[in-house]
Amino acid sequence: MDETVLTEDGIRLWATRIGEGEPVVFCHGGPGLWDTMADVAASLAAVATVYRWDQRGCGRSERSGPYSVARTLADLDAVRAHFGLERMALLGHSWGAQLALRYALAYPERVTKLVYVSGTGIDLGSTWHEAYERNLRRGIGEHVARWELLGSMDRTDAEDRELCVLQWSADFVDRDRALQHADDMATPWFGVNFECNAALNAEDKRDWGSPQLRDRCAALEVPTLIVDGAEDIRPRSAVDSLAQALPAVSRVSLTGAGHLPWVEDPTGFRSAVGGFLSGYRA
């Protein structure tokens, strides 16, 4: 059942829950996108109560700012409070993995476990982004000219969707099914919040990659599982420094999977994440 979470500044956030067991709150990717992990929630419902939500200005949530990392962390805490959770596990994907890590660093006493899926680590983006751009263009393949054209022009909503489907298709290893997987991600289509995307990405660039961040991660005692698709177009070496910094961490790399590993290896993903979560102890 859909629910409305009201933030402290009066913004309405969409949320929903499914399952039975220890509480796990999902943090979707983006920024500026929406939750597309209903299938993940369903696969984990036997071992956890899964809470999904759309971040401020995104998807089914109210399209209103302001947009900042601090504001998004406060919104995540509003989701926790709305559902009456004293403590919770967090599962974050891509940008959401960074968000979940930030929350755990800010409020470690409220986080039981952290599942860090397809994130990009704690180093500066410049250490991996050039390789990502090469891999992205290679993954888009024969559609790269159309993708470039769409990216350079003023677009309709339908053209925004086309651009995203072409770009997201590069995130899948199975090229025969990549466009269909990407189209599934874009259905239903809620529209990208590019203002939110720009604001949060700019903030990440300012404060990611510092020695202080590494030290904070080294002091984080929250048990963490890092889950990677081995063929993610974002180099997995970007996550190495995070894995080395965290004191209570395990890591699973799923062969034959890309940026959304639960799509291309659902069994391996469910086994790794479900096993980690079901071993929860308060």
Automatic annotation (TrEMBL):
Entry protein name: Alpha/beta fold hydrolase
Q: Source taxonomy lineage?
A: Bacteria, Bacillati, Actinomycetota, Actinomycetes, Pseudonocardiales
Gene3D superfamilies assigned to the protein according to its UniProt record, in alphabetical order: alpha/beta hydrolase
Q: Where is the AB hydrolase-1 domain?
A: 23-265
Q: Which Pfam families match?
A: Abhydrolase_1
Q: Does the keyword Hydrolase apply?
A: yes
Key words of the record: Hydrolase
| Keyword presence, Hydrolase | yes
